[in-house]
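Can't attach files on this board, so I'm pasting raw text. These are the components:
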Amino acid sequence: MAIVPVSKELRKGSADVMILALVEDRPRHGYEIGQLIVERSRGALSYHVASLYPTLYRLEDQGLVEGRWVEKPGQRRRRYYRITTAGRKRLASERSVWQSFFLALDRVAGLRPS
Amino acid sequence: MNWIAEVRAEFDRLGKPADEDVIEELAQHAAAAWQTALADGEPSEVAARRIRALVGAWCASTTGRRTTGGEAVRTTPGGVVPTRRGGLAWLGDIVDDLRCAVRQLCREPSFSLTAVLPLAAGIAASTALFSVTYGAWFNVYPYDRVDEIRSPRAVNPNDSSAHISADGRYGSREFMEIARLPAVEEVFGYAPRHNTPLTGDHPPESVGVLRVSTNTFLALGVPALLGRTILPSDLNQGGEAAPVAVLSFKLWNRLFGGRRDIAGRWITVDGRPHLVVGVMPQRFGWGSDRLPTNDGIYLPLSTSTRFGDIQTWVRLRPGVSEQVAAEQFHALFLRLSKDAGVRWAFPSGEFRTEFVQFVDGTGTYASRVRQMRASLTTLLSAVALLFLVACVSTTSLQLTRASARTRDMAVRLALGASPLRIARQVTIESVCLAVVSGAIGVVNAGVLVRAVVAMIPTGFIPVESAINLNMTVLLFAVATSILSGLMVSVVPAVQGSRSSVIAALKDRGQGSGMHARRTRRVLTSMEIALAVVLVMAANLAALAYVRLQAVDVGFNPDRMLESKIRFLREESSEELMLSGASHEHRFVASVAERVEAAPGIEAAAVRMRYFTSRGYDIRGGNGHQSGILEVTVTTPNYFKAMEIALKEGRHVTADEAAIGEPVAVINEAAARLWPAGQRPVGGHISLYVGGSTSPPVDVAIVGVVANSLDRVAPGAAFRRVSRAQPAVFVPLATTIRAKVPGPVAPELVVRTRHENPLASVSAVRAAAFDVDPMALIYGFLDMGDLLAGGRPQSRFNAWLFGALAGVALLLAAAGIYAVLSYQVSRQAREIGVRMALGADRARVRRMVVGDAARLVASGLATGIAITVLVRHYVTAGIFGIPELDPLALCATVVVLGATAAVASYVPARRATKVDPLIALRSE
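---
Top answer:
Structure tokens for the assembled complex are below.
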């Protein structure tokens, strides 16, 4: 599939909303989040490990996600991130902003295939 | 693999302090990646090496600290990047912006067109006028080092009598002395241009001849188009000039049909054969400062003959300052001014020596150059104004588009776009728009330039100017386009980058709020104000033109041709003075008859003028008067040809004119010489003309005609016909019979049937040639054109200002329309509510029209204020008008009012068509 160039600030904002959405239904660890971004975008998007974690830390600092070390038998200790109430609120508002943005974009530019 | 140890070692190696959490999490990531690689069947050695390299990269590019400073977080790039994105990202962003801008332009073609057209008009007008200015002012002359050509002048401002040195003219001797000054590299010049007959196997022509110093063409560095120029070798040892001639391009075409074999042929100039050695190119008009035409013949100036009046030009030696040169010239002039032989050429008393640049012109030519520059400056300012109006107009439209996209901007800002980034995108869009406008503008500028050049009056610009769209002009157009793009983007960029997401989303997609609306009103009001200035200038220019047209000269100058008649026979005018009726007298009468019979001619007459030399005596009047009366000797149809009105009595009949009855007609000014109560018709007057022994001519007055200004010079239109001199019109036959010495310089006046009287020139020439092949009919003047002097100039001004103002008005009207219709669509709900509450249509219409009126009133007030402030500049280039004219002011108000009324009609109508139900439901 074609690679869509996405401008910088869109990316910046979109990283937050993607991460929040990925941890919305269940807690996930960093590696999983990164893999899911690649998978769900079907390879259109990839990520830098070097900035994935700082983004997670920032979201955690803002109280939008919560990180916890979890130990499972037979497995290495892993840090899982789960969404907080504030995170859910932010996700909802971001979703509406993005939806109205895409709707507007679609109205103006006719993005959806007819 | 112990990934924790690996990561910690890596941070240590980099010397970065790292939190345990960060180390462990990165290790966890590496472990997960390793496991996946192994599961995918990648050899463990290879996978370990690859992931170790990755760990190195991660550790190098991330901070090891868990708690990151606010700043660091914000500047960290997003967690997600598009794949395959290289460096130079900013360039990619600009390309994206460009692509986006082009898409935006194409998506709304009608909107883009309305935004492009004003700018295109502004750019076309400025480019066209710039090319005229560039061609006629900055890059006029094809001559070598033209800026270094100077004329030395000796000036004493307190000595009012004209000395030729004040115009840079000197005699042969001073010319030679100047050439010997150490400061002078070269000196070249020409004797006064004069008109000389050119004869041969064709009707004689009067041509302008300029005798130039033989080094002139080398100094100017312009090669001949055909053959060669005049060279220093055209002077023999004794300083005598060879009989060679170089033709100007225009004369070559006019008289010799552009024949390429002209070089090597002999022509007869002033009765002497000259060998044509070459033809100069079209853009060559050396010496045209004496006459605004490049139509003539160049002959070499002998040094053996003394000339008293050589227009002198010098180039100084390299490195010699003007001041040093002026000192040398001054010393020379001081010495010469004490010499009895040439003292007359220099001012008396103290004088100073200075230089005049060739490009600034000398003498009357200098004032023409100044006039042209003033005119061009005014026109350029007008074009700059139009350009501003266009920019404001496009800004206003861009703002409309921007306000429709407020939400888009706000969302992008909310998503982290920097205000600068938004501003950049808006700017790129505007520049794109401007570049498209520029392209359209340049194409149209080509057409405009041709139209303007066709309208430029003769003599308005130097004959050497070549006006076209050259590289410099194109560069100007590109610069103007980009500048306009930047100007147009300022307001929308500032507004766009300031949008607030909350306000924009609250606005529910209806566009911008109060702020943008106010900005647009201010912009439109500015547009109107600038248009007012232009309309005012156009009105003043039109007024000047109309006033020139309306000047009463006492005769009808339209379709009228005037020329001089001269004999090339040996019978000189002196002889004529003695003999009275001579061949010339008889000839003159038959020329008038023959010309009148020629096709396309309504009437023709010859007039000769002289003055009473020893006064006049009105019978029954106050005795002998020593005053000067103008006596005009005419052939029969003179008043018919001139269309001068008869006020009293009758004309001289054909029979009286034929046998030379002593009768005459006088003008109203002469009628006032009669004592009060006495009627001149039926009276007698004795005219004392000629020498003291000649008897007076007694004539009976049979009629009185209107005063007329029949001796017309350029600019004479400003003279009043009421100030005409007293004149007596005597039939030619009467003067012959009275044996009055013949007056000289007969003039032929012809009333033609052509709109362009100059079209009859050849018919007139042919008729005269039939009468006498040695008759020279020359100096043809189109009286209609000549009379007003400034008329072609004022027509040019009126047209140009009119066109500029028209475009500005159109833009202002579009601006008013756009603001009002936008307002009406925004106020649909308010209007709906009002109408639901019982407001009638008239009231709603008043609301919209009142809105328009406020808009126009503010613009008009500002515009008039600006006009008052800049009135000097407005009228500097429009001649013969007052700075502020109440008529022009009223006309401006009316024109603007009418424009506003037209522009607000549609929105007002639409407002009254608002259906309250629909308006309210849509909420």
